[in-house]
UniProtKB/TrEMBL annotation:
Name of this chain's protein: MA2B1 mannosidase
Recorded GO MF terms: alpha-mannosidase activity; carbohydrate binding
InterPro entries registered for this protein in UniProt: Gal_mutarotase_sf_dom, GH38_C, Glycosyl_Hydrlase_38
One cellular component term from this protein's GO annotations in UniProt: lysosome
Species whose genome carries this gene: Cepphus grylle (Black guillemot)
GO biological process, one term: carbohydrate metabolic process
Pfam families, per database record: Glyco_hydro38C2
Glycosyl hydrolases family 38 C-terminal domain segment(s): 95-152
Gene3D superfamilies, sorted: 2.60.40.1360, Golgi alpha-mannosidase II, domain 4
Upper lineage: Eukaryota, Metazoa, Chordata, Craniata, Vertebrata
Length: 169
């Protein structure tokens, strides 16, 4: 069963802090309507992660079609328009996702790559991956690299992890 909340309306106050019944009428005063798409993936436990992790990224990160009028200072008449561009020289392995590539401090970029599978979750997808960062990007060259904590506020070698001692010793 997939729980789905289509409409929120209470005839009486539920005593959860608002002090009145919940009635969301919306702009048309007919009530709010939620429309969505739900996909159900039927697979074996052993191979489910191989499909659902990659399908989830594909659906979540689907490209947008952007239409804009031509012209403007950056538009050169008579020049061929750029129909496709990739900042990567080659495709990343399927179990690696480019999570962040954004300007950071002066002259630097923050790059976050994530491995999409947990250890032991998939026979193929959970395997370690090695990526050559020096030749990965086509739009810029990497001249130096510093591995940081996930929050990008500390170099990785300066991170001090908490060590927990359980009461069982």
């Amino acid at each position: 069963a997939v729980p789905l909340q289509v409409h929120r309306r209470l005839l009486y106050d539920d005593n959860r802090g608002v002090g009145e019944p919940l009635v969301e009428l919306g702009a048309d005063k007919q009530g709010l309507v939620v429309r969505g798409r739900h996909l159900v993936l039927l697979d074996t436990v052993e191979s489910a992660a191989d499909r659902h992790r990659l399908l989830a990224q594909e659906l979540f990160m689907a490209p947008y079609a952007v239409l804009a009028p031509g012209g403007g200072p950056s538009y050169g008449r008579g020049q061929p328009s750029l129909r496709q561009f990739s900042g990567l020289r080659r495709e990343l392995p399927p179990n690696v996702h480019l999570l962040t590539l954004t300007p950071w401090e002066a002259g630097t970029l923050l790059l976050r790559l994530e491995h999409q599978f947990e250890r032991g979750e998939s026979a193929n997808g959970s395997q370690p991956v090695t990526i050559d960062l020096l030749n990965l990007f086509s739009a810029f060259a990497i001249t130096s690299l510093r591995e940081m904590s996930l929050g990008a506020d500390l170099p990785l070698d300066a991170v001090s992890r908490l060590v927990w001692t359980p009461t069982t010793g």
